[in-house]
Structure formats: structure tokens, C-alpha cells
């Protein structure tokens, strides 16, 4: 038996906190009866509805995916472009990406059907580090990248301090490879931060999320997360 709000969150409907609001607002039914008590416990045999739509009480699943370039971080696309869940045809659970990577950004992306886990990883207060490697136009120099370590404002958006490492430079081609570590997840953040210091991004890849890395995965491949990998986020 699990608390009703936990079951709703694990079904990927919303976070546990919002599920509590849904219950108090009378938007949740158990076996056809409106339930508005937060202590209510349910089993897998109970039929649960949110806004009169039944939810599926699936077991929680967690996947680490190597997203290729040219793929949408979504479960569907009105322009019929390829989406990340197209690579999970053998997964029966209703999974969705945690956060997103831009269309032309490749790298590590997590998918789950656990709303509570997704909320945990994306909440700003948890400051989970994400590591990116970017090929940029221009020769990267420490004094130019220094503003990133103090945080900056660009195109009306304020970004928290980041860590950087210059992996290589090519003075002849006037390009560089820069590693940037951030703990926020704002739209186009890495591209905007590097552009703000005069280094437009030509190619971008996310290589690490918390302690998770791509390992031996190739673009388009995925693997389940190990229990200890999942627990590391809950123990923060």
C-alpha cells in the first residue's frame, strides 16, 4: 500500500506536492469515489482517476540515454520529427525525459515515469551539476572565460556561476573545445553563456549528469539506471 499522492507522482502525472493539491481540490477519485484526504493509501488493485482520467500504476523505471543530434527531447512532435521515446520501442511504460537537450545537442539524457524523481532532479535548490563539452568558434583564453565563474546576465536572463576548462585550442582554424559545468537547466544556457563571452557554440554535447556518465553507450543507445545510481540523488 502506498500513499495516493505518491502513486500519482510515480505515474508521471505531476509532482507529489502538486498531487496533494489535486487531492485537496477534489480532482482525484479512487474506485469512482472522490478522495480528498492526504493520508489515503491505495494498492495496485485500486482504480485511480485524475480529472476523470484513469492513471496507470506502473512500476517506476529509470533510463540513461545517449541522445543523438537532430532529435527532440519530448514524447511527441507536431512536426513529425524524431523524438527521444522513438528509441524506446521495447519499453512498455509511459516514460518521458527529465529536462531537455536542444534539438542539435547530443549527450546524456535521463528518462523515467517517476514524477517525484523528475521533480527532484530538476528542482533548482538541488543544484545537480551537469557537464557539457562544446566546440566553439574562437580561441578560448582564461581571461575571456573568467566572467562565467562569477555568473552573468545575457539576453535578459541571469545565469549562476559556472566552472570551465579549456580542453584544446586550434589557432589555425580559430576554434576551441571548452568544458562547462553548470547546475541550472535554463533554455539554451550553455550556448548563451559561451556566446556572452564571445565564443559561439558550433557543437554541443552533455557528458555528465551528477555522477552519471555516458560510459560505452553510442548515440541512440540506452541502459537502465542501477539502484545505487538512483539512490545517489535521493541521498543528497
From TrEMBL:
Enzyme Commission code(s) on record: 5.4.99.-
A Gene Ontology biological process noted in the UniProt record is: enzyme-directed rRNA pseudouridine synthesis
Provide the alphabetized UniProt keywords.
Isomerase, RNA-binding
GO MF: RNA binding; rRNA pseudouridine synthase activity
Q: Where is the RNA-binding S4 domain?
A: 2-59
The terms describing its cellular component in GO are: cytosol
Is the keyword Heme in the record?
no
Cell membrane listed as a keyword: no
> What is the similarity comment for this entry?
Belongs to the pseudouridine synthase RsuA family.
Q: Which named protein is this?
A: Pseudouridine synthase
Organism, per UniProt?
A: Enterococcus italicus (strain DSM 15952 / CCUG 50447 / LMG 22039 / TP 1.5)
User: Gene encoding it?
Assistant: rluB
Amino acid at each position: 500500500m502506498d500513499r495516493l499522492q505518491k502513486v500519482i507522482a510515480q505515474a508521471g502525472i505531476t509532482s507529489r506536492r502538486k498531487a496533494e493539491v489535486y487531492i485537496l481540490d477534489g480532482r482525484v477519485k479512487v474506485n469512482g469515489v472522490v478522495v480528498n484526504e492526504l493520508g489515503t493509501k491505495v494498492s495496485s488493485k485500486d482504480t485511480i482517476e485524475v480529472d476523470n482520467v484513469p492513471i496507470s500504476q506502473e512500476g517506476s523505471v529509470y533510463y540513461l540515454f545517449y541522445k543523438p543530434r537532430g532529435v527532440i527531447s519530448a514524447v511527441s512532435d507536431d512536426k513529425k520529427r524524431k523524438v527521444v521515446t522513438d528509441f524506446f520501442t521495447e519499453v512498455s511504460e509511459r516514460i518521458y525525459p527529465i529536462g531537455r537537450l536542444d534539438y542539435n545537442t547530443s549527450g546524456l539524457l535521463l528518462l523515467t515515469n517517476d514524477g517525484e524523481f523528475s521533480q527532484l532532479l530538476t528542482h533548482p535548490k538541488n543544484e545537480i551539476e551537469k557537464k557539457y563539452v562544446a566546440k566553439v568558434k574562437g580561441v578560448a583564453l582564461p581571461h575571456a572565460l573568467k566572467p562565467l565563474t562569477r555568473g552573468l546576465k545575457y539576453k535578459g536572463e541571469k545565469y549562476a556561476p559556472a566552472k570551465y576548462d579549456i580542453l584544446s585550442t586550434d589557432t589555425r582554424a580559430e576554434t576551441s573545445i571548452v568544458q562547462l559545468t553548470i547546475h541550472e537547466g535554463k533554455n539554451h544556457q550553455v550556448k548563451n553563456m559561451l556566446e556572452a563571452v564571445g565564443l559561439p557554440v558550433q557543437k554541443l554535447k552533455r557528458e555528465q549528469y551528477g555522477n552519471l556518465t555516458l560510459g560505452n553507450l553510442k548515440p541512440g543507445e540506452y541502459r537502465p539506471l542501477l539502484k545505487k545510481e538512483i539512490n545517489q540523488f535521493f541521498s543528497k
